[in-house]
Structures are given as C-alpha cells and as structure tokens.
TIGR02678 family protein (Lentibacillus cibarius), 390 residues
Amino acid sequence: METNQFDEKAEKAFGLLLERFWVLRLKEPELYQMIREREKVLKRYVDDKLGFELIVHQHFIKLEKIPVEAKSWMGMQAFQEPRDYAIFCCALAFTENRSVDEQFLLSDICEEIKDLYPGEFPLDWTNYNHRRSLVRVIKQLEQLSIFQSVEGEVDHFAMNQEQEVLYETTVYARYFMRSYPKDLFDYSSADAILASEWERHEADERRKRVYRKLFLSPVVHRESEDDADFAYIRNFRNRLREDIEEHSQFRLEVFKNAAMLVAEERKQELTLFPDQKAIMDVALHVASVLRNESTHAPDELGTIRLSRLALEEMVTKSREMYGNGWSKHFREASIATITDELVALLFDWEMLEVEPVTNAYVMKPLFGRVTGHYPKDFQEREGETNEQTS
C-alpha cells in the first residue's frame, strides 16, 4: 500500500539506499516492497535536496549517487590495481553481447577480456598477478549479482589458469552503468563528467552540493576563508539540521572548520567511525596524544602539519601509553608499519591529506573531533599486572 508520508520506514529506506549500490527484488523482497510503497516521497526528497534519481525497476531499486568530488574511498574496496578497474570494464563490455541467463565459461571471458584490454602491455593469464586481478573482478561481479556462478569456484583460477568455472549473466547486467547526458566519448575527463551533472541543477546547485557532501562524505571541511559551500552550511545550519533530522537517522554537527552527520546509535547497515577494527584503537589513541601536544598548534583552518618522523613519534608514544590494550598485530608490528596503516585509515576517512610536494601529513579538523583512552580501572589493572611480572 503506497504512503505519502515520510515515515520511519521511509527514513530507514533512505539510509539503506545511500549505503547500498542497489536493492534486488529477488534477494530482498520485503525491503524492495517497503521502498516501493514509499517511492513517491523518497523520489521527491532525493530529487529536491540532492538532485539524485531514484530508479524503481521491476527487478531492482537503485539510487544514482553522484558525488561533488570523486574520492579514493568511493572505489571498489576489493580492487588493488588500476588494472582491476580496466578488467572490470572489459567484463562489463563482455556482458553487452550476452543475453539474460546465457551461460559461458571462465575461459570465454578470459579470452574476450584479453582482446578488449586497453593497457599498454597485454594481459597474460600465465602471470599470477594478472590472474589475481581477474579473480577480484569476478568476485565483485558476483557480489553485484551481475554474474552468477553455476558450477565451480573462481579462486581456483588464481592457482591454475586451466581451471574452469561456469557462469551465467543476470538481468541486472544491463543496468549497472548509469546513463549520461551525452556520449561518454564527448567527455575529456572524469571531472568533466562530474561537472556536466550540474547543468540541470543550476537554479539550486549550492543546496544540492551541500546535501551531497554531507550525505556522501564523512565530513565537509572548510577549505578556505571564502569557502561558499561551508558558508552555506554555517548560515543555514538550523534549517539544515531540522530537515536532516526529520528525514534521516543522522544529526548535523557544525564546528568552525568542519561539518558532519553523526549517528545517535550504532546500526549494522551503516559505515561508522570508529568500527570494531583494531586499527581504530591506534587512531583514537594517536588522536588523544596529538590533542595533548602543545608543540603542534592548528592553523586558521584547523589543520596541523606533521612530518613522517613527527607522526611516527606520536605512534611510538601512543603505544607506550596504550599499547597493552592493542591487538597482538599492533603490539608487535614496527612503528613504520603501524604508521602506514594509520595513514591509510585516516586518508580514507578524510582525516588526513598528504601534501604533494613535501609529503607532509596534513591532519584535518575531523581528526581533532575524536579521541580515545582507557577507563581508569583498566589502567590500574594493567599497572598491577606489570608490578606482579616485574
């Protein structure tokens, strides 16, 4: 039964559509139906506030999420090389010539991908790294339900190029790529594709830019003295806060140099900071050490510049203070290894940038909003344990 109210289920549906690539009717019929019943209110809201298109198809529902700026964390997390993306595009091209439910062998797609591959050097399936790339791509295609395995496991191909797997294309293969206003060959770069998105949103571009930044990114930082997007957030923060809290499970927080959406409760479907990974302990403890460091003061935009040596010293100090509670990996790893993993995490969460010329680390204001330390009784217990073993 269709509803015209943006109720609690519409709020949940909106959150899930932001997190998911698509919702498949065959796999999640109840969720599909819940969204379908709130199609009108959801379409109205995402079009008005974000300028996004909600596609409701008989087989799936998909929210076309187009960011203001492409970020590295928006990619496919399982992919490790540019080659993975090139092979993925070749695999999509392969599906163009296949009908729904048509079956094919892994060797068939291997041969066609090799012919389509645009790289300077050709693919060589005797090369282990090339085979691993293909395995990552096939697994991603299976995860997206574009391919479906009928018989066999693709993992075996990584160890032996003669291994076969039987697949079939699904009805979703035709709908992975979004439609563009012009032919793709008319765009000179990825930035040109993103820029063309605003041609149909000129009247209310600023509002939609701000909503997209807030809902798709961990944080919106003030990037300069005259940052127009951040000024919009500051000037209309009360109206934004009221609207966002009414239509989503998030709360808007605005500070001098950063604005972000935060969740009141930890929910399984959300990607949140911090999560349960062991590296989060390191990050929170380093943030605590940095917060108490008087030698590194933030500039007008709230950023702090650190050399590699300075950051490693903070990691060392953090391990000395809190390392007893860290996972075995981080208790025993080298400081360089821990720092590398920390930098990768903070970069993905837009808490850190790397200056291109100096390679200095620029700690962003969002990193200053988090901190972590152990309860007093934990530290007392650790102290008693150390006394007994010394």
Notes: The longest strand covers residues 258-263. Residues 15 and 54 are 13 Å apart (CA to CA). The radius of gyration is 24 Å.
